[in-house]
Amino acid sequence: LMVQNLAGSLALVTCKEPLRHSMASQLRNALIKAQLPDAQWVEQASQVIAQENLELGCNLIEKAATEKALRDVDHQIAHAMDLRRTPKTPLNDQFIQMQNWLRFLPEALRPKAGALVPHQKRVYEDFAKLPRDRVAQQQAGGAAGGPSEQAVGAFEGQQQQQQQQQQ
Fold this sequence. Notes:
Residues 2-86 form the CCR4-NOT transcription complex subunit domain. 82% of the residues lie in helices and 0% in strands. The longest helix is centred in the middle third of the chain and has 47 residues, at 39-85. Helix 1 (2-33) runs antiparallel to helix 2 and helix 1 packs parallel to helix 4. It has helices at residues 2-33, 39-85, 90-102, 118-142, 147-166. The chain starts with a helix and ends with a helix.
């Protein structure tokens, strides 16, 4: 649960701006190759399309990062468990030495066998919700009149001006 949320959040934070810039650049190049006459329209259209599809792209990247992190952690845990099952391996000896240190920890800090109790699991679930709540609040607060809507409004305004000039 923790590795999924951490990997997903890190991917989301690090990919957003580079993805938006890359999408806008690729769209701009594709529209220029289509030989559209108005360079300003090409720029605005590429920015609007990139902004409108940014969340979808970020979700795909977040999902891929989460799945990869989960596979990597599962692989590492399986490998460590295999080594611990083999007697007289260095890792097994280190594991036993670590067990000796655990007896010096207070009872509240000692790891216990079995599943998490509900209040412990809630800590992990709250951690997973925390960053997304902040992002949702920021997006909800700035959704009306955001950059995407402003760009669309500017684009429509320019189209109307061009039509009036042609008449």
